[in-house]
Amino acid sequence: DAKTTQPTSMDCAEGRAANLPCNHSTISGNEYVYWYRQIHSQGPQYIIHGLKNNETNEMASLIITEDRKSSTLILPHATLRDTAVYYCIVRVAASNTGKLIFGQGTTLQVKP
Amino acid sequence: GAGVSQTPSNKVTEKGKYVELRCDPISGHTALYWYRQSLGQGPEFLIYFQGTGAADDSGLPNDRFFAVRPEGSVSTLKIQRTERGDSAVYLCASSPDRARDTQYFGPGTRLTVL
Question: Which of A6, A80, B14, B53 is the most buried (most CB within 10 A)?
Fold first, then answer.
């Protein structure tokens, strides 16, 4: 079973920041938080990941709370092309398998 | 550079038939994964290869499913005696050289069993 909970769906206005929350209250000290997204009819696309510190790359920012029990993915200026299902996944850092366990994700609809 | 490619993009078959789905990982990636995604669900792990060997096949649903990666590059997922419940999108992902590296996904093969 997925170790994360996310809202089923969210809307965001084009050009505004999209803030996608994720709860992972049972996360262990050696587990990373990963975010992927899946645009309709495509394979999942890696966005960002982090352990403790906040992270930023060209696609998004990841804010992890100090207790690591929740995180927020921020798309700073959402566009229509950001409409997708966003998956928050926790993953053991030094796993023998590295398999990703996907939940239902959050369907983000960016509206003009 | 080239990403993960999967062929065919679509496969329609009849119940009871045998199918093979192919995955070409990113060049040089030693780790390869297969996932299955049913309509409206997140992807579900099937099997993980490190090099030529299957390091974790715990997600294969039953013995009708088998996968190989004989030369440590291309992988083939084989499904025998297909059933209607096997209809799904089959996704392949690869990562550079360790189980903890970021995975990069292909576009998937949509399998329809009539």
Answer: A6
